[in-house]
Amino acid sequence: AQTVTQSQPEMSVQEAETVTLSCTYDTSESDYYLFWYKQPPSRQMILVIRQEAYKQQNATENRFSVNFQKAAKSFSLKISDSQLGDAAMYFCAYSSNAGNNRKLIWGLGTSLAVNP
Amino acid sequence: DTAVSQTPKYLVTQMGNDKSIKCEQNLGHDTMYWYKQDSKKFLKIMFSYNNKELIINETVPNRFSPKSPDKAHLNLHINSLELGDSAVYFCASSQDPRWLAGVKETQYFGPGTRLLVL
Q1: What's the N-to-C CA distance of chain A in angstroms?
Q2: Most confidently modeled of A55-64, A96-105, B46-55?
Q3: Domain with A111 in it: what CATH number?
Q4: What is the domain partition of chain B in residue ranges?
Q5: How many CB atoms lie within 10 A of CB B73?
Q6: Where in the sequence is the domain holding A98, given as residue range(s)?
Q7: CA-to-CA distance for B15 and B31, rounded, in angstroms?
Q8: B41: contact with A, CB 8 A cutoff
Q9: 3-state secondary structure of A106
Q10: Is B105 in contact with A102 (Cβ distance < 8 A)?
Q11: Could you tell me the pLDDT band of residue B101, with boundaries at 50, 70 and 90?
Q12: Which CATH class, in words, describes the domain spanning B4-98+106-117?
């Protein structure tokens, strides 16, 4: 069974600095997707960035980028130039691209505080 | 123009009552989901429907019954509410990419419904 592990329950960063959130996963599949979701205090889940496993190039979305290491099964999120609005829970998630199994497997989340 | 909407946003009720949470998506997606997020932030899938058919049914008490009148709606009815049902319930939708080349699998979440059982 696939699992997703986020080993950092809490992180903090100074405004304008860079922070990296860790995520590792376990799977025997070769075709899958990885995601980072943000959950601000409003509780809404917002997709931050996604990565297809077959792509070697790391995904980027403005100030957000990932370091995808397929062999190591690692998928970390880097937030550059951190802003106060980045403070939230961040969830790493995995989704198989095989068969009928479309559900996301979630990590337990990392709470990110941004200090002014 | 909200993509995935849920009502109500907050729900406070007594133990033993029956309540429903509604979800609607205007993205034209085929698949919808219900998740439960407990007080420790753990997000657990409960149900998934594809074109009004149940495709995922995790180990959830029979008191929880999803209903999908059409593929844009997935409602969650809970009978005989218990204290342990207190949580935030998220609805989500996605477009299944198995036969749509190039479509990326992404789930879009609603704002959540905070349920408090007293």
Answers
A1: 41
A2: A55-64
A3: 2.60.40.10
A4: 4-98+106-117
A5: 16
A6: 3-115
A7: 31
A8: yes
A9: strand
A10: yes
A11: very low
A12: mainly beta
Q: Is the CB of residue B56 less than 8 Å from the CB of residue B115?
A: no
In the block, tokens 């059982």 appear at B117
β-bridge mates for residue B49, sequence order: B32, B54
Residues 45-104, chain A, touching B (beta carbon < 8 A): 45-47, 50, 52, 89, 91, 95, 97, 100, 102-104
Check pLDDT > 80 for residue B9.
Answer: yes
Number of Cβ within a 10 Å radius of residue A72: 9
Give the number of domains in chain A.
Answer: 1
Closest residue on chain B to A36 (Cα): B106
Task: Report the pLDDT value the prediction gives residue A72, as an integer from 0 to 100.
Answer: 95
Contacts of A71 (CB under 8 A, 6+ apart): none
Residues A45/A91, Cβ–Cβ less than 8 Å? yes
Q: DSSP letter string over B25-85?
A: E-S--SEEEEEEE-TT--EEEEEEEETTEEEEE-S--TTEEEEEEETTEEEEEE-S--GGG
Of B45, B106, B111, the CB nearest to A44: B111
Q: pLDDT per residue over A24-79, tens digit each?
A: 999 998 888 899 999 887 777 788 988 989 888 999 989 999 999 999 999 999 99
Which amino acid is residue A39, in one-letter code? Q
